[in-house]
Design goal:
The chain has 17 helices and 22 strands. The protein is of the alpha/beta class and about 450 residues long. It has 2 domains: about 1-25 and about 365-445, Arc Repressor Mutant, subunit A, CATH 1.10.10; about 25-325, pyruvate-formate lyase- activating enzyme (Alpha-Beta Horseshoe), CATH 3.80.30.20. The strands form 6 sheets. Strands 2, 5, 6, 7, 8, 9, 10, 11, 12 and 15 form a 10-stranded mixed β-sheet that branches. Helix 3 packs parallel to helix 4 (about 120-135) and helix 8 packs parallel to helix 9 (about 265-280). The chain is globular, with a radius of gyration of 22 Å. About 45% of the residues are buried. The chain binds iron/sulfur cluster. The site of iron/sulfur cluster (SF4) has 11 residues, from loops.
């Protein structure tokens, strides 16, 4: 679907809200959900034998990017990875013991931090440990992806990762403008970046994603346009264009960004408008929530066939997998629950050394949560909700159940963000950039007085 950029409506609906990589969002997680709850959910999910997704958090980075809100450990001491990996190996064994071996791992993701901070032999040992403990799906039916910092890649890394089974890479770029790079402390050349894309194509990876951020210090429409030209010259299969959320009270690193260097809200909107036009003009399809892909990419095809899913890494083609998170801060989604590992390295080490899993908190979804999750997922991924689908799945009458929400949505229909007809709600081209606002109508937990503290701006 094409995106219709309407500056007046974007300004009208500019508020704070979740990105809905999960529903309910992590704000609802609590320490009342612990290891026993997790084990029970995993037991139940084993009976359904849904395929598995594994997420590994590798937190190490050599230097601090000032915009970064990820859980990371900045260090030049490579030996710090050794005790961390010992715990990761222990957690793999412990988690795998709880999983029915007939369940295949169809999706795997290494995120961070910087996964390629690890030496090649450490990466190989880690994949070996995973393969020994879990049943991996055959290469043609799995998606194994890894986040790559082009500044932390050796000549051997990209071919080695392919040999180890990875078939997709995602590159952090953010911006090629030297002034922007200096202001966020991330100096990364075009040559370094393109060398990784070339190596991935030569090795045979299925797709390359490039991450960019708009709203960073010193960015202008012209400067970001130049970055886009450079990136598009390589025609990556996927692009994620994130909106920088400046929240220095929540993200300590962002205190190092000089607030007067940030572009004005008007400039940010103009950058977004230029970006959407440029990418659509270059033939990319808007998937929703910052993500674009080429028309023949699997994500675009999944969107057309109704298979697209939203998860903690953005969008995915693998529906109905249960997710096990391994490493500090990792989030899992098993059966009707979410769980998150300890956030601090020390706590994570202590938990693993005591023979436990490292679950710090989590959440078990009620039936109402499941219904709302499916509605929000449908809006985010298919851009429509078919009432009958939800009514049949949960034995409800959609209109009775969502009487209040449908009244609220009527205002958005007047603004042409959605079309409401007797069978479905459809997001219009004008509503595409306001998906979060539309989804927020179905969120039972939003507290407007807390939203600014908890979430980023939607635009
Ligand atoms: S953006 Fe990536 S490389 Fe930079 S500090 Fe964050 S995790 Fe590390």
């Amino acid at each position: 679907m094409l995106v219709d950029f309407n500056a007046a409506l974007l300004a009208k609906y500019d508020t704070y809200g979740p990105r809905y990589t999960s529903y309910p969002t992590a704000v609802q997680f609590s320490d009342e959900f612990g290891e026993m709850d997790y084990r029970l959910e995993l037991e139940q999910s084993n009976q359904q034998r849904t395929p598995l997704s594994l997420y590994f958090h590798i937190p190490f980075c050599k230097s601090l990017c000032f915009y970064c809100a990820c859980a990371k450990i900045i260090t030049n001491k490579q030996e710090r990875t050794i005790p961390y990996l010992e715990r990761i190996h222990a957690e793999i064994v412990r988690q795998a013991e709880l999983v029915d071996p007939n369940r295949e791992v169809s999706q795997l993701h290494f995120g961070g931090g910087t996964p390629t901070y690890l030496h090649d032999d450490q990466l190989a040992a880690l994949l070996g440990e995973i393969a020994r403990n879990f049943t991996l799906a055959p290469p043609e039916s799995r998606e194994f992806s890894i986040e790559i910092d082009p500044r932390a890649v050796r000549d051997t890394t990209i071919p080695l990762l392919y040999e180890l089974g990875f078939n997709r890479i995602s590159l952090g770029v953010q911006d090629f403008d030297p002034r922007v790079q200096a202001a966020v402390n991330r100096i990364q050349s075009v040559e370094q970046t393109f060398a990784v894309i070339d190596a991935a194509r030569a090795a045979g990876y299925r797709s390359t994603n490039v991450d960019l951020i708009y709203g960073l210090p010193h960015q202008t429409v012209d400067s970001f346009s130049t970055t886009l030209d450079t990136v598009l010259s390589k025609r990556p299969e996927r692009l994620a264009i994130y909106n920088y959320a400046h929240m220095p009270d929540k993200v300590k690193a962002q205190k190092l960004i000089n607030v007067i260097d940030l572009p004005s809200p008007e400039t940010k909107l103009a950058i977004l408008e230029m970006t959407v036009e440029r990418l659509q003009g270059a033939g990319y399809v808007y998937l929703g929530m910052d993500h674009f892909a080429l028309p023949d990419d699997e994500l675009t095809l999944a969107k057309s066939s109704g298979q697209l899913q939203r998860n903690f890494q953005g969008y995915s083609t693998y529906a109905d997998t249960d997710l096990i998170g391994i490493g500090m801060t990792s989030i899992g989604r098993i059966h009707h629950s979410f769980s998150q590992n300890m956030r601090e390295e020390d706590d994570y080490f202590k938990a693993i050394d005591s023979g436990a899993l490292a679950i710090a908190r989590g959440y078990r979804l009620s039936l109402d949560d499941q219904i709302r999750r499916d509605v929000i997922q449908a809006l985010m991924c298919q851009n429509e909700v078919v009432y009958e689908t939800i009514s049949q799945r949960y034995g409800i009458d959609f209109f009775d159940y969502f009487c209040k929400e449908m009244r609220q949505l009527a205002g958005m229909a007047i603004d042409s963000l959605v079309v409401i007809n007797p069978h479905r709600i459809t997001v219009t081209p004008t509503g595409q950039l306001l998906l979060r606002n539309i989804a927020m109508v179905f969120d039972a937990y939003l507290d407007p007085s807390e939203s600014q503290r908890q979430f980023s701006r939607v635009i």
